[in-house]
Design goal:
- The protein is α/β, with parallel strands linked by helices.
- The chain has helices at 12-36, 41-58, 82-91, 132-145, 164-175, 196-199, 205-211, 224-236, 256-260, 274-286; strands at residues 73-76, 152-157, 181-187, 215-220, 243-248.
- The protein has a single domain, classed as Thiamin diphosphate (ThDP)-binding fold, Pyr/PP domains (Rossmann fold, 3-Layer(aba) Sandwich), CATH 3.40.50.970.
- It has a five-stranded parallel beta sheet, with helices on both faces.
Length: 287
């Protein structure tokens, strides 16, 4: 699968196609969470639009050959977002739809926290926060030295911005002129103990990355058109520096009762709420 990367204006059909992919990714996330009766569903719903832009448009991948050397690399820092990544990998045809039902079961290829050795298409093991951008630097530097045209994408969370290692990695990426590295921050203003901006505000995130020498964009991370425009621009930019998109997202996006529920790192959905979640997701998609 070769992705499209040119400077032509973004066609409406392209946005429509990606919005459909985002809807299916959200459905896939609900399927997994319902099987387990739990899962980081709030985060999976908030990041579905970004993952749809990546997995149905921007990334060059071959689902039949997940280790193909010419692929783009998508590195998920945040292991607890695994449910969202599996939802996107199923959408991208790495796995059959039925495999979603095995989420977090014994011997499943879909463990609750993402692990490279378990799941084709998963590039790194997650869990301990603050390591994704560090690893992305190494992968991007290695690819540049091999004169590869592949890009490295790293999805990190706003909570990870509080990790010192993230900022060490930000400096290293600039030092090595990693113009094949695109970081995406899921700015859902949530972390384990409350709102990220209340716990340890890293604002202005844009100014901080700019000061570190990065090319920075910030947008509504739940607008497929905006995310697509910015990721496209960041990839095609001819400048010797790393790039980052700060994506402002809404926890629980697409399911009204979750959008309105108290925002928590782990959002509880009771057994009798899954049908309503599906109905509201459909209503939101069709609105
Ligand atoms: C180094 C490290 N410290 C603490 C944790 C525990 N932990 C797991 S998820 C999480 C929240 C991190 O913030 P974020 O990813 O923004 O949370 P979310 O948006 O998913 O609520 C924390 C502190 C961890 N996994 N790794
Ligand atoms: Mg967060």
């Amino acid at each position: 699968m070769t992705a499209q990367h040119d400077a032509t204006p973004i066609a409406e059909e392209r946005v429509t196609r990606i919005r459909e992919a985002a809807y299916r990714i959200r459905q896939n996330a609900l399927t997994q969470a319902e099987v387990q009766g739990q899962g980081y569903i709030g985060q999976a719903l908030d990041i579905a639009d970004v993952l749809a832009v990546l997995y149905s448009d921007q990334l060059t991948l071959d689902p039949q050959h997940p280790e193909w050397e010419g692929r783009d690399r998508f590195l998920l820092s945040i292991g607890h977002y695994a449910i969202a990544l599996y939802a996107a990998l199923v959408e991208a045809k790495f796995f059959p739809q039925e495999e979603l039902e095995t989420y977090a079961a014994d011997d499943s290829r879909f463990p609750m926290s993402s692990m490279r050795t378990y799941t084709p298409g998963v590039e790194i093991s997650g869990g301990s926060l603050g390591h994704g951008l560090v690893i992305a630097n190494g992968v991007a530097l290695g690819l540049k030295r091999k004169r590869s045209g592949s890009f490295v994408y790293n999805l990190l969370s706003d909570g990870e911005l509080g990790e010192g290692s993230t900022w060490e990695a930000a400096a290293v990426a600039t030092h090595h002129r990693l113009d094949n590295l695109i970081a995406i921050v899921d700015f859902n203003d949530q972390q384990a103990d409350g709102k990220s901006t209340d716990m340890l505000s890293m604002e202005s995130v844009t100014d901080k990355f700019t000061a570190f020498g990065w090319e920075v964009r910030r947008c509504d991370g739940n607008s497929v058109a905006e995310v697509l425009t910015h990721l496209e621009e960041l990839r095609s930019l001819d400048a010797p520096r790393p790039r980052v998109l700060i994506a402002d997202t809404q926890l629980g996006r697409g399911v009204k009762f979750l959008e309105q529920r108290e925002k928590l790192h782990f959002m509880k959905v009771s057994a009798d709420e899954w049908d309503l979640a599906r109905v509201q997701l459909k209503e939101d998609f069709e609105a």
